[in-house]
UniProtKB/TrEMBL annotation:
<dbReference type="InterPro" id="IPR020476">
    <property type="entry name" value="Nudix_hydrolase"/>
</dbReference>
<keyword id="KW-0378">Hydrolase</keyword>
<dbReference type="Pfam" id="PF00293">
    <property type="entry name" value="NUDIX"/>
</dbReference>
<feature type="domain" description="Nudix hydrolase">
    <location>
        <begin position="7"/>
        <end position="130"/>
    </location>
</feature>
<dbReference type="InterPro" id="IPR020084">
    <property type="entry name" value="NUDIX_hydrolase_CS"/>
</dbReference>
<dbReference type="InterPro" id="IPR015797">
    <property type="entry name" value="NUDIX_hydrolase-like_dom_sf"/>
</dbReference>
<dbReference type="GO" id="GO:0016787">
    <property type="term" value="F:hydrolase activity"/>
</dbReference>
<protein>
    <submittedName>
        <fullName>NUDIX hydrolase</fullName>
    </submittedName>
</protein>
<comment type="similarity">
    <text>Belongs to the Nudix hydrolase family.</text>
</comment>
<dbReference type="InterPro" id="IPR000086">
    <property type="entry name" value="NUDIX_hydrolase_dom"/>
</dbReference>
Length: 133
């Protein structure tokens, strides 16, 4: 194994709620996790800040322009080190894009029925960031 094979890939995600407490989720269009639901996000590109990556990834995957705020938390999933930030929407129109097969606002009842990426529900619960209605 080469040293580069052991390095974690830095990623970001945007935890975003609408005015009614619904959570923004995307259905992954590609692996890892094709077909599963997750918060939008992806890899941080070389020379990019976390906040710039969150803005870019959410625009690419959801069509929404967001303002990233505080760090909600960090998780490691396989070789991915994911930093999730709380975000506010400042514009755009919700539509799936880039590697997202679908994008939608979900309430607590829908969230509970979706096929989610591994650990997402437990992580958001631990951070107090589940949909509120």
């Amino acid at each position: 194994m080469q040293a580069s094979d052991r390095l974690l890939v830095r990623c970001v995600g945007g935890i975003t709620f609408d005015d009614t407490g619904r959570l923004l989720l995307i259905q992954r269009g590609h692996d890892p996790g094709r077909g599963l639901w997750s918060i939008p996000g992806g890899r941080v590109e070389r020379g990019e800040t976390d906040h710039a990556a969150v803005v870019r990834e959410l625009w690419e995957e959801t069509g929404l322009d967001v303002v990233p705020g505080e760090l909600a938390g960090m998780v490691v999933r396989g070789r991915y080190e994911i930093y999730d930030y709380l975000c506010e929407v400042r514009g755009g129109r919700l539509r799936p894009g880039d590697d997202a097969a679908d994008a939608r606002w979900v309430d607590a009842a829908v969230f509970a029925r979706l096929d989610l990426t591994e650990g997402l529900a437990d992580t958001l619960r631990a951070w107090g960031r589940l949909p509120s209605r």
